[in-house]
Amino acid sequence: MTSVLWTLHCLDGPGAAGRRDELRPAHSARLGTADPAPLLYGPLLADDGVTQLGSLFLIEAPDRATVRRWVDEDPFTAGGVWQEVRIHALRLSDRSPVRIPTPAGPPQTP
């Protein structure tokens, strides 16, 4: 099955800052062992550059169901930090300055 790039736009609920702080160690540990492993991730910030509003991930997975399971197993989901998670497939433009390596497949014949 072909892998697809997926974006996860995870928005925190009201009053989630305390739960985020409490659950961050478990969330961070999971990011190091989760399958599929995220290709990139980071907090979404308010205009002040400090206040965290959520999280953004780029994940390579075969289908939406795999990504949904990934979200559901995260401590921020179970702990009520993320109020809304938007999942979208992403096709990188051929003109994108950043290239994501594709997984190794069977050898190609020239």
From TrEMBL:
Residues 5-88 form the YCII-related domain. Gene3D superfamilies: Dimeric alpha+beta barrel (3.30.70.1060). Signal peptide: none annotated. InterPro entries: Dimeric_a/b-barrel, Sec-metab_biosynth-assoc, YCII. Belongs to the YciI family. PANTHER family: PROTEIN YCII. This is YciI family protein. It comes from Kitasatospora camelliae.
